[in-house]
Amino acid sequence: MSDTDTKFETEMNRGFLQVLVLVVLEEAMYGYMMLRKFEQLGYKVEESTLYPLLRRLEKYELVESKWDVSADRPKKFYEISEKGRRIRQKLLKIWQQQDFILKNLSQEDI
């Protein structure tokens, strides 16, 4: 894969991962749980990609976090906020429109 291919793939995955995180966080999860869930779905995400994204989503108030210190190792749980739900709804609508357009293109056009 060329550098150009890699850059475009990275850019596309970045947007997809943002939506994916907002969808999966309807249920509170900590980072490692998310990584395992994505892996089970066949989507590999590096910790070095996920945690900065979670911090960014929290900064924009799209997710909220709480520490659980009841176990031996404290864990930071993330969950989507109301603002995040509104944004998620808009992003999913955009994705559905884009998916519709792509599916309706003939194979010759791709």
Outline the structure in words.
The structure is a single chain. The chain is an alpha+beta fold and 110 residues long. The protein has one domain: Arc Repressor Mutant, subunit A (Orthogonal Bundle). Helix content is 62%, strand content 13%. The chain has four helices and three strands. The chain has helices at residues 3-24, 31-40, 47-59, 82-104; strands at residues 29-30, 63-68, 75-80. A hairpin with a 6-residue loop joins strand 2 and strand 3 (75-80). It is globular, with a radius of gyration of 16 Å. It starts with a helix and ends in a 6-residue tail after the last helix. The model has no long low-confidence stretch (mean pLDDT 92).
Kindly state the number of beta strands. Answer: 3
Q: Largest beta sheet: what is the strand line-up? A: 1-3-2
The CATH homologous superfamily is named Winged helix-like DNA-binding domain superfamily/Winged helix DNA-binding domain
CATH topology tier name: Arc Repressor Mutant, subunit A
Number of domains: 1
> What share of residues are in beta strands?
5-15%
How much helicity do the residues have?
55-70%
Give the N-terminus to C-terminus distance in angstroms.
19 Å
Gross geometry: globular
Oligomer: single chain
Helix and strand sequence: HEHHEEH
Q: At CATH's second level, what is the architecture?
A: Orthogonal Bundle
Low-confidence stretches: none
- How many helical elements? 4
**What is the average of the pLDDT values?**
92
* Cα Rg: 16 Å
Summarize the structure.
With 110 residues, this protein is of the alpha+beta class.
